[in-house]
Amino acid sequence: MSDAIFEIATPGVDVEKIVRDIQATVARKWEQGIYTDARVARAERTNLVHLRNEDQFLGFYLKCLREAVFVDISDFEIRERRKCLAPLLVTFKKVLWKLLKFYTYRLWSQQNEVNGLLVTAIEGIDEKYAEKIKAMEARITELEQRNKA
Are 63 and 84 members of one domain? Predict the structure, then answer.
């Protein structure tokens, strides 16, 4: 652990074992699909610099993006935390929501359409370049075989 940013050392505590246990737990949860939630991708967006070299990360990130792309336009419960005048405030908010619902639904549905098109475009570009890279690698292999012969 000498190359780490910081070091944890306490007498009587096996730090390496704790780190191995954490890594094993993360690996197990990854295999179980627990970390495929879009919230994980949002939490990891600051780590993109560190993760961009992993082969499977782009596919994982695109899957998370596909799951999180659409704005939830379903109704929601209107509640009020403040005790004073709570019934009056809830009624006011419900009336206001009913008046604005039409406009917000239109806006959300347009945003969902744009988001879906953008994700589809990104996935299409990824597939296109993945196919090109695969074809180029096959061509390189073929040329290497010719040069050996």
Answer: no
Same domain, 55 and 123: no
CB 18 within 8 A of CB 25: no
Q: What is the pLDDT of residues 5-34, one digit of tens each?
A: 566 677 787 878 888 888 888 788 777 776
CA angle 132, 135, 138 (to 5 degrees): 150
Same domain, 94 and 56: no
Judge if 22 and 82 occupy the same domain: no
Burial class (CB in 10 A: 0-12, 13-18, 19+), 44: middle
Q: How far apart are the first and last CA of the chain?
A: 48
Name the DSSP letter for residue 45. Answer: G
Name, in order, each residue with C-beta under 8 angstroms of 9's C-beta and a sequence gap of 6 or more.
15
pTM for the whole thing? 0.52
Number of domains making up the chain: 2
